[in-house]
Amino acid sequence: MASKDKDQQPKKKKPIQHLIGGGIAGFVESSVCHPLDTIKTRMQLRRQTTTTKEVVKRMEGKALGSMRDASAKMEGKALGSMRDASVKETVHVKPNLDGIKSATVGGATKPFHDVGWKQRVPSAATSSAAATMSTASKAAAETTAPPVVATLGPFGTARRIVTREGPLALYKGLTAVYTGIIPKMAIRFVSFEWYRDNLNRWYNHYSGLPSSSNPPSSVTFTAGLLSGLTEAVAIVTPAEVCKIRMQGQYHSLMDPSQRQHAKYRNVVQTAGLIVKEEGIGALYKGVVPTMLRQGCNQAVNFTVYNWSKKAVVNWKKSKVEASGGDSSGVGLDHWQSLVLGGLSGGMGPLVNNPLDVVKTRMQKQVIHAGKEPKYKSLSQSCVVIAKEEGIKALWKGITPRLLRIMPGQAITFMTYEAVSTQMDKLGWFD
Question: Does residue 362 register a pLDDT over 90?
């Protein structure tokens, strides 16, 4: 049993290996999956204060009310015009009174006055009254109503971005990701291994276990949590603020004039502008939900991946040993790392998506001097979003986020394992 545990103990890698492997994995992952992150961000930034059915119902009520008001108003005007016309048209036929210049009315002699043919013809007001009445309902029906804010799925959001802003708009903020992803992945893997080794050493010491014992799941979970908190403070939060500001711009990349007038153009200019306008602290907007999100993600991610990896490797070793072969060099195949990485990556977002929504809203808003921000804290932001948009709004972007993170983590772990294995074969750091 002791020899088996020893065989299961993985070969220790040097920090430089984690640095190189994590950096390359992050670069490949972000290059492939960044469009999904842009779609997720746009969906989370879209606000909807009511459901589509409620908006349509309210619009129908307003349209009917407008039609009734317009009809009543036109009827009143038409009746008034008709009354005025009837007063003017007292005399309708000119009698044959040639030579008669006056008439006696009520004992008094008054000159006879011909009203003329123009006054005997119906007035323009009278003739237009019917036409006005007939077009009243049409005018009310054609009244321009406010647009309905309908929910767009990930594919609809992607189609809208490409149609309005061009295909390259799906890669907005990629420079910010490149700036942060390589050090983020490097810090993630290096810090995870460092936390796990030290926590496992402490755990084995106080539990009376051999120092070479494999770390339990609790140690792996804690190490993943701490590595997530570390990367959130060191890299992720400032990079995400810049990325979201760039992704949140709706200018077209197909129009050179719009590109020239874009406020945020690249990560360095964006970071400098944010610091200039809002202070250095603006780069750490949403640091609390970012820390909670990253900590939760990496705790679950590393725990599930390492547990699954250990189970698959032990199963493969048992098959090799049953056939009489040497199991010392047995490890995961590339496709197995891909599958296990994708499955482990999908666990965290299912739990912590509200943290990601709040983080995105807090990092997108621009704080002006003398004005109170709408989103001030994690709990307050959750309450505001749920109250204004419904509890489901806290799960906006979950589909593109899963589509982004699951293949992203799959690519990350597969690339990391492949690069690490290749470095071991080449003996670069022996």
Answer: no
